[in-house]
Amino acid sequence: MNLIKMFLWCVAIFLLAAGCSTDGLNSDSNNDTSLDQTVVDLAQTSGQLASGTSFEIVGSSSDSAAAINCRPGPNGRRGNGRHNGILDGLSLLAPTDELLAIVDAESASDFRGLRISKSGGATITNYNAAGETVSLPISATDGPQGCSFSGHQFPVYDSLLATIAKTVIDFGSGVTFRRDTVKITRSGKIVITRSVSGATKTEVTTFDNYKVNGIGIAGTKTRVSTFDSSTGSGTSTTSVADGKITLADGTVATWTSEKSRVSDITLDETTLKPTSGTITTTVDAKVVTTDGTVIYSHKTNAPLVENVACGNRRRGPVSGKLETVYRTDTVQVDFGDGTCTNKTITITFNGVTSTKTIGE
After folding, report:
1. Which has the closest alpha carbon to 345: 331, 325, 329, 326?
2. Cβ proximity of 191 and 125 under 8 Å
3. What is the pLDDT of residues 243-298, one digit of tens each?
4. Does residue 102 lie in a domain region?
5. Is residue 317 part of a domain?
6. Tally of structural domains, the chain
7. Range among 9-13, 86-90, 182-186 with highest mean pLDDT value
8. Beta partners for 276?
9. What is the pLDDT of residues 73-111, one digit of tens each?
10. Which of 99, 155, 181, 284 could disulfide-pair with 94, CB 3.0 to 4.6 Å?
11. d(CA 119, CA 133)
12. What is the pLDDT of residue 178?
């Protein structure tokens, strides 16, 4: 039995114990074909990591519509039985420690990563070029998600980041986050340094003895971004050097990650915020052990395209194809035909295709 199906049995037992109805968890109320919830979770999170956008797939663990089927738990809140609610507000789901470590590694220097660290109890300190401490507001859900310098997609945050030369995310000897039955312990530091030279912005992220639930993450992630406001064109390339993930049992895996984002957008003359255009992303990330075993990978078989003009009408990529491998399972997602009105995506799990929808 593959890992995803094994985990699904655990999920079912947990949901029964938590007093949650399973109605809506594999919902077909939106004409979706029933699909293992954990498969949907994996498709959602890998899609977010790859594209840098935030979205929910109907039927995932973070689907707010499904959460209403849960009876209130001991503290009165609904949704207490959601097995993947460990990264609330971000729609990033990590049903195993391996996937949790990959989420931390891939998103460490993004705004999404800063939010994860803040909610996880880290001390976050920002310094300007003179070494003075400065403030960087981190909102709960608004603003940039899976990007830092955003190519003017979020100009206010870009301006703030340009004044911050260094960010230190410090979990010390260990900080534990608990929510219901979920427990995450992080230790060590993540250090982000930034420099600006003309239109080019460079960010370098390193991990200082960093661990999450006993899994160590090491390596240097470098992101180089450029943007020309006169043309609305920009690029962002991210790469990982000397990446390594050491599992709790001592197994060492090589972590490689390459991402390219190309912006071609039109800016409002007054607000300088984007009103139309596209952001196109290609990505290839892998976590592979020394014997060649693939623990995790995601890659674009066709570039992921975000239509800025869609706004909240269609979250996430409007087109593109992403393939994710987790151990022995393969999940492929086709994000659609490129239009804002189409909310149907197809998910192919080990050769079997189902349809799902992107939530509001």
Report:
1. 331
2. no
3. 999 999 999 999 999 999 998 988 777 776 777 889 999 999 999 999 999 999 99
4. yes
5. yes
6. 1
7. 182-186
8. 266
9. 322 223 333 445 556 567 888 888 999 999 999 999 888
10. 99
11. 21
12. 84
124 Cβ neighbours under 8 A, 6+ residues apart: 114, 117, 118, 136, 138, 167, 168, 169, 170
Tokens encoding 334: 């086709």
Q: Under DSSP, is residue 296 helix (H, G, I), strand (E, B) or coil? A: strand
Q: Write the DSSP symbol of residue 292.
A: S
Mean pLDDT, residues 336-352 taken together: 93
Q: Which DSSP string do the residues of 257-270 spell out, in sequence order?
A: EEEEEEEEEEE-TT
Residues 6+ apart with CB under 8 A from 207: 108, 188, 189, 190, 191, 217, 218, 219
Does residue 247 lie within any of the structural domains?
Answer: yes
Are 188 and 108 in contact, with CB atoms under 8 Å apart? no
Q: Report yes or no on 100 lying in a domain.
A: yes
pLDDT on residue 86: 59
pTM across the whole model: 0.83
Contact partners, residue 143, CB within 8 Å, separation at least 6: 111, 154, 156, 157
